[in-house]
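Obj.: predict assembly geometry.
Materials: sequence records (below).
Method: joint structure prediction, all chains together.
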Amino acid sequence: MDNIIELNSLRKTFRDFWLRPTVEAVRGVDFSVARGEVFGLLGPNGSGKSTTIKMLLGLLKPDGGSVRLFGLPPTSLAARKRLGYLPELSYLHPFLTARETLSYYGGLCGLDSRTVKERSAQLLEMVGLQDVAGRSVGGFSKGMARRVALASALIGKPELLVLDEPTSGLDPVSTNEVKTLVKALAKGGMTILMTSHLLADAEDVCTRFCILNRGEKVTEGEMGKIGQSLSEFFLAKVGEGRAFDVAEFLK
Amino acid sequence: MRAFFQIMKVELLGALRSKVIFFYALFSAAWIVFGPDVLKYDGSQDGAFLLSVRYLLGLVFGVSIVFFGALAVGSVSSDRAACRLQLALIKPVRHSIIALARIAAIVAVGSAVLALASLLVYLSIGRGRVCDHVYSPLMEDPKIGARRIFDDCMEKDRNFKERVAEIGSREVMKYLESYVLDTYETIDSGKSASWIFPDVENTGGALAVRIKLNDMFGRTDAVIGSFSFGGFSGPLENINKTLVRVPLVKTGAGEPSALIFENKSKNSVSLQPRRDLHILVEADGFGWNIFRAWLMMTSILAIVVASGVFLGSALSRGVAVFALMALLFAMVISPATMEDYPDPIESNAIDRFGLMMTEFCADLTFSLTKHNPISQLESSECVEWRDVFSASLSALIHSAAFSAIAGLAMLRKSDRA
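Observations (raw structure tokens):
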């Protein structure tokens, strides 16, 4: 099978100013994602999902192991050309309009102005922002900013789309819209890697998943073959967590 | 190139849509226009010119260096703090291009502000003024002079040999070089002296001699004499000025090469020819001169902005701003500090170490301090095209080098995030 992402024994330890290790964030994680898959990278807070994503995007240098995107190092221009990324929070330039934002990221992808114009119009219509395309994104609601960020990630027509908590902070309607969009993109042949705390969302859209906990891979599987809900499966693998004893406090 | 222009466009839009730049440009313009009403001067045209160039344009230039340098530091570091930088870093564009485009955008805005200030100075006081090419006499290379004295003393003076062994020949040579540079030439009453000048390109503009006078008693009111330069000559009748401009008029035939001064006063006249004597040839109008000075200011600004973008890429914003300010401070004080250091021969090891560090700072900021367009403008000296080209080339090389290492530093920094 044609693997788009390949991670082998990936390791990352964060260090302080004196290079003393502070956190071992990722400990020997490996998984691969095939073309056309919607892959969920799941795990509780602090499990190493974001660090893994940063290494996958070439923003962090791994201490050990290897990352290949399209068979290339993630820092290569050829790999970055085929990649789209939606971060957990929509980090947009507040003084730019929605249209200018898409034009900016289209330019960074090396697209000519005509293509940028055409794709911007398509994407703005797709995410339902065509009426506010001339407004500064600084004044947008969280949901609208998320949609602009998603459109920016798609402007280069990437083969691989990396979504970091794509439904985080969205209302149920917007969440549903994003999930529908992800499914439609996957149906169109795009490979998608997404992280999420919201297991119901992951269950809806992912075909395969990998669960991380404390920097290590706990398990990897296919969504239809776990024989129970993803939430039950997740808790069984990661643990229920500690029960807070509030009785003493409430006395 | 598309990515370069897009980054530049966004940086420019950010600058233009932020009110800070607008108000900065407005205050700069207001300072140039209303400055003469606020500051006191002698009321003469020359006084107004000096005020406009040195204190109004000079201040706008100085503040712009600090302002746009700080803006450059914030360009990358604030984007990193807002997590926007990572979105650009994962796009298929070289990280050095991201840095270079930001440098280009900030320099474009800064240069526009300087252009506005320069234009206002030209319109208010500069029309009708001219500037001069400045020629210095051809003198022996101070290194050769110093070597000659050094060899002579080594041969004849045993104490000298001991001192050289103690403090090192390099320090002694430096001292001797400055001694040769500072050597006064004395022209006794009734005597003449001559100095050879390089080929003075006389394009038909007015010729003059500029001389800084100092008689043996520290007075400057008794110097009388005459200059001749080929077929040109002019009388020197100094009353009370230290710096005198003597116009030369055509009085005969002959190719100008040697300047001859005949001392007709009762006292001896002393001068340091390297520093005190120049031939001036009218070049062109103040408009062209301030245009060249603007190009020079833009080049200096580009070097500071490139340093700022590099520091902002490698360090956090607070540390980067502090580092840039320290660099600018070192740039300003290094020359004066070096002047005030004790002579190497009389100094101890700690003094010499301090001097070495100061010289390092001066070398580091050499590109910025080599030419000062403001001082050339105020003394009506021509800002030469060759200096403009050399400053522009230096700015291009610095920008390319700083953006290359800034590109590397951008990812290195996120490594520690």
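Conclusions so far: The beta strands of chain A are 3-15, 21-34, 38-42, 64-69, 83-86, 160-164, 191-196, 208-213, 216-222.
To do: check interface contacts against the pulldown list.
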